[in-house]
Amino acid sequence: MRSVSKHFGPTVANDAVDFAASWGEVHALIGENGAGKSTLMSILAGLYRPDAGTLGVAGEPVRFRSPRDAIRHGVGMVYQHFMLVEPFTVAENVLLGARDRGVVLDTRSVEADLSRLGERYGLAVDPRAPVWHLGVGERQRVEVLRLLLLGARILVFDEPTAVLTPQEARSLIATLRALAAEGFCVVFISHKLDEVLAVADRITVMRRGRVAATTTPAETDRRALARMMVGRELAAFVEHPAEEPHETVPAGNVALRVRGLRARGDNGLEALAGVDLEVRAGETLGIAGVAGNGQRELAETIVGLRPTAGGSVHIGGRDLTDKGCSAVARTGVAHIPEDRLATGLVGSLDVSENAILRDYRRPPLARGPFLVGRAVAAFTDRLIHGHDVKTPSRWAKVRTLSGGNQQKLLLARELAGDPAVIVAVHPTRGVDIGATEAIHGSLRAQRCRGAATLLIGEDLDELLALCDRIAVLYEGRVVGELPARGADLERLGLLMAGIQEATASGATAADRPPVVLRG
Ligand SMILES: Nc1ncnc2c1ncn2[C@@H]1O[C@H](COP(=O)(O)OP(=O)(O)O)[C@@H](O)[C@H]1O
Ligand SMILES: [Mg+2]
């Protein structure tokens, strides 16, 4: 790719980017959120057209008008969100793509090819299984197999391990290496530095739409990569987050108690199937699990945004089951929701209006029905300075702030009243490294102050670094719990896959139709 540029409205996603990857290599593409990685690779895969610049494959200049065009030239991409038809079987999904491309294949030969390729590259799936039966890791394998069968020789993976358990991630990484060993060109987008250092032959770092550096694992390390990603030295960069010493705080009384909690998801199906948990003052309980196993519903029922279908929620000894979110907030519960601009903040309101959303009815911010301007300004300034929120002024619309600064403002507001209980869902998702450090600092400080925190996360490193205990949610149940310090990653991964007891003869997954491996 030469001098490739792409903008979306005023946003320059790619700014004259040069990028080259070779046959037979795993080429990692790293950078902070918003650096332009997905855009660049979507251009390579024919999803977007560049505003400027040229592409070449195997020395030939190419111009792709669609993903189909790209696949014809051997370029395929595994996106972060899969594009499979759920009621169809694996083989049918593959056939669908092939027909699109004008290739006529019969089911039986596709099934045979899938088994053969699956075996060869460690991508085992049952070709006859309907896709809705499959877990996330298996669906991802189907996507890869589909591209291989369509003849892709250049394979792009967009943050493929983000959705996987540690075991699945390890297996995928072995697949990437196997593909490279057979001469494929593999581009691996990630922001997990350890993973990149372990698997990549070369690493290209993007920063704000440009290429900041291209290097190799031998020439660099985590710290240097992080510096290239953010463009400055990180004062408190944690070399190995999981090993960071954990300040011991004596745990106090039970602040949050959840018993037999049941709830339905947005689709009306049971999302929580009887959850029990307890968090004490000064303690952080992490909730791990593959996305979609009830995490969102758990947080929402606790904070009173979603009705329960059974069970109870006690906060500080008071029964707050189905009492509504205002009552829960008044009891001293802070909520850092998953979607900060839909639930947490109001993008069209300014910084100070968002800052007072929780407390605007009460003194000192209000006197009778009136807001006290000076008090509002002082309160807002305290939040902005206390949490280093970078904003042009108190009157800037919140939607114009970066994701990291929005999140810092949200945390500042929610933590301002020294809450007894904090429910935080993916608090650092989509924010830059600097803001992530600041948010971790705030949560640690709250723990030391004595807050009971329920931290729902998808990044195991983050959970291990911040939590005292980790409970794993699987299909709406807590399937196991372990201490975070010195946690057994193997067991954690098995629990995330729904496997509670690993036996010598192999493990059994709970409530999932068995996957038959053929070939
Ligand atoms: N379809 C789109 N419409 C508008 N803006 C977009 C779109 N896709 C990406 N962007 C913007 O382009 C920039 C680069 O995004 P992206 O390529 O997704 O980064 P990365 O994958 O490195 O996180 C970001 O500022 C993002 O908000
Ligand atoms: Mg991306």
UniProtKB/TrEMBL annotation:
<dbReference type="Pfam" id="PF00005">
    <property type="entry name" value="ABC_tran"/>
</dbReference>
<keyword id="KW-0547">Nucleotide-binding</keyword>
<dbReference type="InterPro" id="IPR003439">
    <property type="entry name" value="ABC_transporter-like_ATP-bd"/>
</dbReference>
<dbReference type="InterPro" id="IPR017871">
    <property type="entry name" value="ABC_transporter-like_CS"/>
</dbReference>
<dbReference type="GO" id="GO:0016887">
    <property type="term" value="F:ATP hydrolysis activity"/>
</dbReference>
<dbReference type="InterPro" id="IPR050107">
    <property type="entry name" value="ABC_carbohydrate_import_ATPase"/>
</dbReference>
<protein>
    <submittedName>
        <fullName>Ribose ABC transport system, ATP-binding protein RbsA</fullName>
    </submittedName>
</protein>
<feature type="domain" description="ABC transporter">
    <location>
        <begin position="1"/>
        <end position="233"/>
    </location>
</feature>
<keyword id="KW-0067">ATP-binding</keyword>
<dbReference type="GO" id="GO:0005524">
    <property type="term" value="F:ATP binding"/>
</dbReference>
<dbReference type="InterPro" id="IPR027417">
    <property type="entry name" value="P-loop_NTPase"/>
</dbReference>
<feature type="domain" description="ABC transporter">
    <location>
        <begin position="256"/>
        <end position="500"/>
    </location>
</feature>
<dbReference type="InterPro" id="IPR003593">
    <property type="entry name" value="AAA+_ATPase"/>
</dbReference>
